[in-house]
């Protein structure tokens, strides 16, 4: 089955994954795409943002609780009627339940789904060091399809140019965009419950995020990467002992 998809991962928590993921989802919706959102892990707050941004219910992909087949089932069956899947990661790309194995990590989900990954890095006050950090993520697990990076919280244009040059030349990876420091905060509420009277304001905020992404990120490139993802072979659980079939 052909499912255009990309995972938005991060070097750690608080690097802007949710802001950038929601902005990207909304930008794609504004371009006319039907976007199916997903969230790695058991988080229930970010999927609420995904729903407001896309109009489709976000689904959790939790490899700590679910086996590979169940992950694929959740992913494939909920994609029906969509054009592209955007999967927001959690914590750091390789962070796991036990800190040794990959169990429960974004990296594990990327391998189960055979999904390309775009990595977000906070480059505030960094240049060459950003290349060292990203190189570590690139070489740590060669089976993770890390395609490119989005550099967040850059300073002035001179800083943005310098850190981009360092990452391209030294980490030898494509830079999809450099986002400056902005004073935009996600509207977190108790239990993730956003009152109905606030939702129009939240959607306007998401449109601002979409404009930010369109301005500073190569959205066309991200679409191309998502559409380059390999086909997914998924078979119904009851057919495990029969010939594997591809869901059409």
From TrEMBL:
Q: Which domain of life is it from?
A: Archaea
Q: Where is the CobQ/CobB/MinD/ParA nucleotide binding domain?
A: 6-183
The family database entries (Pfam families) matched by this protein are listed as:
CbiA (PF01656)
Q: GO MF terms on file?
A: cobyrinic acid a,c-diamide synthase activity
Q: What NCBIfam families does the record tag this protein with?
A: cobB, PRK01077.1
Q: What is this protein called?
A: Cobyrinic acid a,c-diamide synthase
Species of origin reads: Thermoproteota archaeon
């Amino acid at each position: 089955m052909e499912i255009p998809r990309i995972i938005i991962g991060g070097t750690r928590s608080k690097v802007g994954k949710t802001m950038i993921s929601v902005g990207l989802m909304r930008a794609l919706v504004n371009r006319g795409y039907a976007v199916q959102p997903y969230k790695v892990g058991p988080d229930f707050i970010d999927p609420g943002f995904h729903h407001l941004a896309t109009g489709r219910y976000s689904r959790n992909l939790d490899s700590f609780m679910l086996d590979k087949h169940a992950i694929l089932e959740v992913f494939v069956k909920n994609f029906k009627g969509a054009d592209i899947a955007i999967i927001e990661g959690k914590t750091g790309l390789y962070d796991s339940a036990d800190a040794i194995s990959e169990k429960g990590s974004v990296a594990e989900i990327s391998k189960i789904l055979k999904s390309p990954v775009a990595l977000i890095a906070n480059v505030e006050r960094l240049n060459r060091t950003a290349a060292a950090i990203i190189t570590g993520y690139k070489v740590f697990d060669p089976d993770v399809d890390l395609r490119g990076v989005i550099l967040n919280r850059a300073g002035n244009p001179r800083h943005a140019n310098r850190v981009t040059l360092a990452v391209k030349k030294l980490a030898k990876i494509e830079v999809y965009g450099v986002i400056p420091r902005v004073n935009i905060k996600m509207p977190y509420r108790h239990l993730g419950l956003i009152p109905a009277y606030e939702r129009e304001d939240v959607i306007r905020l998401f449109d601002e995020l979409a404009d930010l992404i369109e301005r500073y990120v190569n959205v066309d490139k991200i679409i191309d990467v998502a559409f380059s993802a390999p086909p997914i072979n998924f078979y119904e659980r009851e057919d495990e002992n029969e010939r594997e079939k591809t869901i059409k």
